[in-house]
Amino acid sequence: MGESTSPAREVVSEDRTGAWDLQGAGQLQGPRGLRAVPTEGAGSSWVGQKSPPRAALKGPLLQNPAAPAPRLACSGPGSGAAARAGPAPRRRAEAGKKRRAAPHPASQGLWEPAGDAGVRPAGLRRPGAGKGLVGSSAPPTPAERLPLARAQAGGEPGPAKAIQRHRRNLAEWFIRLPREERQFGPTFALDTVHVDPVIRESTPDELLRPSAGLAQEHQPPPAGLPTLALSQLFDPDACGRRVQTVVLYGTVGTGKSTLVRKMVLDWCYGRLPAFELLIPFSCEDLSSLGPTPTSLCQLVAQRYTPLKEVLPLMTTAGSRLLFVLHGLERLNLDFRLAGTGLCSDPEEPGAPAAIMVNLLRKYMLPEASILVTTRPSAIGRIPSKYVGRYGEICGFSDTNLQKLYFQLRLNQPDCGHGAGVSATPAQRDNLVQMLSRNLEGHHQIAAACFLPSYCWLVCATLHFLHAPTPAGQTLTSIYTSFLRLNFSGETLDSTDPSNLSLMAYAARTMGKLAYEGVSSRKTYFSEEDVRGCLEAGIKTEEEFQLLHVFRRDALRFFLAPCVEPGHLGTFVFTVPAMQEYLAALYIVLGLHKTTLQRVSKEVAEVVGRVGEDVSLVLGIVAKLLPLRILPLLFNLLKVVPRVFGRMVGKSREAVAQAMVLEMFREEDYYNDDVLDQMGASILGVEGPRRHPDEPPEDEVFELFPMFMGGLLSAHNRAVLAQLGCPIKNLDALENAQAIKKKLGKLGRQVLPPSELLDHLFFHYEFQNQRFSAEVLSSLRQLNLAGVRMTPLKCTVVAAVLGSGRHALDEVNLASCQLDPAGLRTLMPVFLRARKLGLQLNNLGPEACRDLRDLLLHDQCQITTLRLSNNPLAAAGVSLLMEGLAGNTSLTHLSLLHTGLGDEGLKLLAAQLDRNQQLQELNVAYNGAGDTAALALAKAAREHPSLELLHLYFNELSSEGRQVLRDLGGTAEGRARVVASLTEGTAVSEYWSVILSEVQRNLNSWDRARVQRHLELLLCDLEDSRGATLNPWRKAQLLRVEGEVRALLEQLGGPGS
After folding, report:
1. pLDDT tens digits for 31-57?
2. What is the spatial distance between Cα 805 and Cα 53, in angstroms, rounded to a whole number?
3. Three-state SS string across 240-260, please?
4. How confident is residue 230, by pLDDT bands cut at 50, 70 and 90?
5. In this predicted model, what pLDDT tens digit does every residue of 342-369 receive, in sequence order?
């Protein structure tokens, strides 16, 4: 992913279980006793690493489950015999084979035979002999290698074992995943999902050419330019000259760190045969050493202990030795002879920067190969005469690479491990296909995914929306982690003495642009808008230099040219949610305050402290000199902090007011909740429909308040502090109090289901149970009917409301596409409900197990349970009856249209007496016949508490209905049996609503199902008309029968 490395001490303080923390392999001790822990980040590779202790090497090599095991002996392409080579006699016996495999580079020595003349250093080879080893496919000649297996067989210690230990240590180190990647499953590994970005060869002239404007800076590289593969980086150039130093550069987020990590792992697994030894250095680590004298040998030995045995031979390794210098922008180099003297001795102490300069000058180890990665602004720190090739990392400029990345990452088999149910392969495939279609048809998301880091963000967001959510993970934490992966420890310009954090600079400039866009409700920005925010307040040469660095290195990360028709020539934030995140960050950091407001707060604090000290003195002096001015001054010192405090408080109240209004803003009657909107923006499905009266250009920023709440949570504040964007505890408390005040006022109103879910999602992002309990204490009805309850939404509702203490009068989750896993997640909320509606959720018998457990829970207080229009069947009713037998709270149960049939009603009749509290039971429209209905009716009449039994719309004959009516007319029992829906209702008012609704939706509903409903209704009406003696009621029923017949004729059914 994107690049990021941070000081080890920051990583240790943030996460003791980081991806690179090698505590299990022993404490890594570096200079001054600091433990070196590589940075945790998707793009981070390593920071200040020292070689793990020898204790870490005991036991098998930690291998990537998805990658081939590192081959630790001769295993060149096309053969495996040499890899299994044993003692010398065995190898001599195999010498006659026609095809002998080339020995693996890991088994080659740093010394080579010189024929009859004896042994000579590898660096003193015949002219042209080493060309085959520098990235080309030509294998080294026999005179250029010495199989270390031969040295080991002869009993010599040799460097082979040391290099093998070095490979194992690097593999164990670099294969570890950061915490943000572990969410994708336990078998998720870099080898299984890595897609090489496009690398385009460039020239020094091209690098120095100034750009005309922002639009040209943001243009992707032309498609026709030649590209480079990793294996081609050290190939001879166009003139046939040997390439020893390669500089790879790319803006933030193009994948430099991930590329280095993959390259190191490839070498560890024997996939880079051109290099016998690879030594990676972090420039941030080298920079942290300052001018402390050290030697190259000491730098290597301190970081990679196994290589101590190889150090004497390092000078003779030639081009087979590869140094990797990652993050050159962190290291200040001075190539002037007056600043850095010449030195060719690897054991001569000097400043780390001076050692790197002499390596790059080719004055020290002139035959060694060097790979440098850097941001564009630091390219000029190495004079071009010392660089053999420049390569620009262009990210995923090809849409096919984006699709491949998404396919590999989203199809991980263990994606969604942990609690809950993982997505099926069909669901994952469907997700990938939807995303691929959106990449093809919606060019803006393809422009965003040009950066591999944003591909990671898209995958992480989809995983958050569609897979079981790890505890504590929020949308805000994903975006905060995303920025940490790309900006952790990054300073804007290492040459600037201010050491300004790159993220802090972005929050001030890009945050200002984002906030102005949210305030004015726009997402498209002209070049003048962008320049206005970038250049605001710049006066000095140093400030212009910082702006230049930011524009070259990071501006493309936040802004992308708009490719949508009608908006060409404008800019948009790379992903829409990033604008709302940065706007929220801009506010919580206090960057939106005016100068007067910032000064007012400081003055109030200073005057307040002075007032406390002076008040005692004034009180004493006032007794001795009763002057009128002294009490006045004394009161003034008390008033000033309050006045200034009100000014700052009004600013916070204004922010809270804007946030709450944005959260409860109902632009149209069909507004999706914020999570569905986010999924639609990524997958390309149709978004929320606009109200006809709404201006077409009006934008909705419902994520903005969610991010504001999320950024005030303790976890995100801690991560932001590492990024150089600290939020003071007092500011966070005051902002939270202002938000709580506004939410308390506006949150009492009855909200539409989608807006209510947004309200709950805000509390979920805030991650403060006490705050949520106080604000939501007035919530008595949870109505989310019609909201598609995904696993994430169930988690949100359960996390926010599950720990509350007050009861909920009603929880309505009708038509929410709930499944058994969702029921289990929402169990804490159900235990607080008195009325629970679960209609139209397609819940089957499996869900009845969870409902049984709910009814048997000792904290259950449900009095009304509605399960209509769910295929429970007789098996489900059997489980429900087990719950009813031990439940003491339920009084009303609706099982209308649940597919019970005769078997289900007979089960109810046999076990109804096991519950003594039930007052109303609805089993209408279940396809039951006369016998089962009559058995249940008799059981209901004998029940001590049952008052009403609904049996209408069942397969009852006219005789059966009459028997049920006669049964209800007897004096025995107390339960009333309703065999017809029209019994006791006002026909003219009641049926007109039903029929008008059917008429209006006749073309959109399932016609066969509607026809069946109307046929049952017609039979019910005819039977009721025949049973009544009231002529006025007969006329009403006859009129309704005519309307039902007319509808049936439209559907093609029988009209009579």
Report:
1. 333 333 333 333 333 433 333 333 333
2. 53
3. CCCCCEEEEECCCCCCHHHHH
4. confident
5. 999 999 999 999 999 999 999 999 999 9
Count the Cβ atoms, other than its own, within 10 Å of residue 98.
4
The whole-number average pLDDT for the span 709-733 is: 89
| Average pLDDT of span 172-188 | 71
DSSP conformational letter for 400: H
Q: Residue 148: which of 251, 73, 57 has the closest Cα?
A: 73
- CA gap 194, 986 in Å, rounded: 69
Give the torsion sign (CA, 439, 440, 446, 451): positive
DSSP 8-state class, residue 26: -
On the question of pLDDT at 941 being above 70, the answer is yes
Q: Is beta strand 321-326 parallel, antiparallel or unpaired with respect to 559-561?
A: unpaired
Q: Within 10 A of 616 (CB to CB), how many other CB atoms are there?
A: 9
Task: Give Cα 875 to chain centroid, integer Å.
Answer: 40
Mean pLDDT of the 197-208 span? 83
Instruction: Look at residues 156, 163, 141 and name the one whose alpha carbon lies nearest to residue 73.
Output: 163
Query: Is residue 139 scored above 60 in pLDDT?
Result: no
Predicted pLDDT at 735: 80
Burial letters for 525-560: b for 16+ Cβ neighbours within 10 Å, e otherwise?
A: beeebbeebbeeeeeeeeeeebbebbbbbbbbbbbb
- Give the dihedral of Cα atoms 295, 297, 298, 301; nearest 10 deg: 160
Contact predicate 206/249, CB 8 Å: no
DSSP tag of 314 = G
Q: Is residue 531 a contact partner of residue 177, using CB atoms and an 8 Å limit?
A: no
Cα–Cα distance, 705 to 802 (Å, whole number): 22
3-state secondary structure of 376: helix
The yes-or-no verdict on residue 115 having pLDDT over 50 is: no
Best CA proximity match to 808, nearest among 830, 785, 838: 830
At 412, list the tokens. 């991980």
- Structure confidence by residue, pLDDT tens digits, 236-255: 988 899 999 999 999 999 98
Residues 6+ apart with CB under 8 A from 624: none
Of 437-451, 612-626, 1032-1046, least confident by mean pLDDT is: 612-626
Split at pLDDT 50, 70, 90, the class of 421 is very low
d(CA 576, CA 130): 52
* Other beta carbons within 10 Å of 623: 8
What letter would DSSP give residue 384? G
CA dihedral over 671, 672, 674, 678, signed as positive or negative: negative
What element of type H or E holds 865?
A: strand 864-866
pLDDT of the residue at 112:
33
Tell me the Ramachandran region of residue 26: left when phi exceeds 0, alpha when psi lies from -120 to 50, beta otherwise.
Answer: left
Residue 274: Cβ within 10 Å count: 23
Report the 10 Å Cβ neighbour count for 639.
11
Average pLDDT over every residue of 701-711: 88
| C-alpha 167 chain-centroid distance | 32
Contact 2, 451 (CB under 8 A): yes
Cα–Cα distance for residue pair 859/804, rounded to 1 Å: 13
Distance from C-alpha of 738 to C-alpha of 653, rounded to nearest angstrom: 6
Distance (Å, whole) CA 994 – CA 93: 93
- Per-residue buried b or exposed e for 667-681, using 16+ beta carbons within 10 Å of the residue's own CB: eeeebbbbbbbbbeb
Tens digit of pLDDT for each residue in 739-789? 887 777 665 678 889 889 999 999 999 998 888 888 888 889 999 999 999
Return the H-helix or E-strand segment holding 200. strand 199-202
* DSSP-derived 3-state class of residue 1054: coil
Contacts of residue 935, defined as CB under 8 A and 6 or more positions apart, other chains included, come to: 905, 906, 909
Six-digit token string for 419:
């609690």
478-493 CB burial, b ≥16 within 10 A, e <16: bbbbbbbbbbbbbbbb
Q: Which of the residue ranges 116-120, 153-157, 522-526, 771-775 would you say has the lowest mean pLDDT?
A: 116-120
